[in-house]
Structure formats: C-alpha cells, structure tokens
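COMPLEX REQUEST
Ligand: magnesium ion
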Amino acid sequence: MLTVRDLDAGYGDLQILTDVDLDVGEGEYVTIVGPNGAGKSTVMKSVFGLTTYMGGSITFQDEEIHPLDPEDIIHKGISYVPQNENIFGTLTVEENLEMGAYILDSVPEDRLEAVYERFPVLRERKDQKAGTMSGGQRQMVAMGRALMLDPDLLLLDEPSAGLAPDLVQDMFDRIDRINDDGTAILMVEQNAKTALRRCDRGYVLAQGENSYTDTGDRLLADDEVRQQFLGG
Ligand SMILES: Nc1ncnc2c1ncn2[C@@H]1O[C@H](COP(=O)(O)OP(=O)(O)OP(=O)(O)O)[C@@H](O)[C@H]1O
Ligand SMILES: [Mg+2]
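STATUS: Structure written out below.
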C-alpha cells in the first residue's frame, strides 16, 4: 500500500534521510525504532509531505505522492499524529475532533460517533478545553482527530510518549484495535520492545538510513539488534 524507495529527504539544504526503503501493506502494522535523532520522525513527516524532498519515491496505493502537500495526502487516505503539539489546546475536545474533518464541507456525524465509541472519555469531556486534558487523554484527542476521516493508513509518532506504564499498555491495546478494524499503522516508538512485540514488521533506523528490517519477533530475537538498539 505504502512503498518508499531510496528516499532522500531533509530540511532546507540539510539532508537527514539517505536511501530509505519502507513498505506498509494493506492492513499491516509496522513499527520504526532507532536512537534519538535517527530520523524516525523525519520519515513520518516525509510521507506526509512535510520535509524537503531530495530524491527517491513515495507511492501510496500505486500513486506517487511525494510532490503532494498534506491536505492532498489526507484526501488519499493517510492521517498523521505528530510527536509534538498534536492538539489545539484552546479548542474543546469536540472542536479538535471536528478539525480532523476540516477538508470536508461538513463534519460526518457517523465518524464523530465512531470516534466517541472508540474513546468514550472524549464524549464525556467533549466540551472541555483540550489543553486541560491529561497526557493520555490528549493523545486520545490527537488519535481521534486523525481517525475522523477513517484513514487507510495512520501514522503515529510516539503515541506512548509521556504516559504512565499502565496507560502505555492501554494505548497499545487501542492501537491494536484500530489495526484489527482494518487501518494500517505506521508507528514510531521509543518503547521499542513493546512495539516490536505487537507489530507485524519493524524497521531499525540509524543515522538516517535503514539498519535492520524484519518481523518484530525476529528483530527482538536478534542479538545484534538487541545489543545495539534495544538495551540488551
Ligand atoms: N525542522 C527541522 N529542521 C532542521 N533539522 C531538523 C528538523 N527536524 C529535525 N531535524 C534534525 O533531523 C535529525 C532527525 O530528527 P528526527 O526528529 O527525525 O529524529 P527522531 O529519530 O524522530 O528522534 P527522536 O527519537 O528524538 O524523536 C536530527 O538531527 C534533527 O536535529
Ligand atoms: Mg521523533
């Protein structure tokens, strides 16, 4: 479904990614792990049209998408939850969710209902300012907003960042359910072992390049990967 080949990308004149390859199949759950600064977020941003393109190809459902801007990419069926600043704090929870459908003329009520069913706490707090929600709740707002258009592919950059351990498991369970319901997931995670255990396939990215690629289980079982990237 998503195919990235030989991608070179960065910011302005600064190249961060070199020859990155990446695949996400229909309904697949794929994780990218790697050290801080490896370029994981840059890969996600590149797929969403937010970096400087320098070479290679990004196709989604057999269509080249790299010259498109984010709004067009959303139309193609990709939604993105950034690592930082992923909600509008001064807007209410419901207004945030409605923003997820800004490219449409009107807010699809059935989608809003589907998001509330997935995250009941958002319905309970729909009139609360999103900036006053807890960390876990904010992450749900951000994910709920990204789900408003029922994407085929959801990009999640560190969805468990800053959450207490019990909430981390809860977040991963929610992501599993979104994937079980048919949405393909491309996720970056600092919680690498847990993420690799749950996903179908994983990529280890280091210094802007592919380092290892395999099923999550095989990456977890690989001594070199464990020692270099997973803390033993
Ligand atoms: N907007 C930007 N302008 C210039 N350089 C940037 C920008 N964003 C990121 N970089 C640089 O690109 C490199 C890769 O950053 P990126 O955020 O992709 O790493 P990451 O793997 O997501 O790291 P982390 O695990 O800390 O989130 C870093 O050296 C970073 O300083
Ligand atoms: Mg990052």
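REMARKS: The radius of gyration is 17 Å. The pocket of adenosine-5'-triphosphate (ligand 1) is lined by residues 11, 14, 16, 34, 36-42, 83 (CB under 6 Å).
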